[in-house]
Amino acid sequence: MGKFLTAVICIALVALCIYGMWHGWRSRLARQANMFGSLKEVPERYEGMTADAAFEGEYVSTTIFGNWLDRVGFDSLGFKSKSTLLIYPDSIIFTRNGAKDLWIPARRTCGSRRRSSQSSPPTVVWRARLWRRTAWS
Question: In the chain, what are the helix, strand and coil shares in percent, each to the nearest 5?
């Protein structure tokens, strides 16, 4: 009986932790949807246009400018996926597998850097400014 009760308590604690993570993520999505609005679609003018450069890689996440730990989750930005980064003179586009493409006008980017570590392949990190209620305008 003691082992059974211990197992039930452990399972209940794990379930409570999973529920807390799920509830926290849903609350973050609701908060950010009210904060930013929604992403704009990739303009049609880029269809058929050749990019200046293209890089295969992995889209990991978008974070709040100035706070690298505050991950943005609204409008499918929180989903990790294989991606192609397309660079145009006036914007960049992430074409993401299984998620909405991400279009960032050049005027919204504030820089980039190449980062690599021993445990991961080289990563291109872009920082984009998101403004309240006028995201990506």
Answer: 30, 40, 30
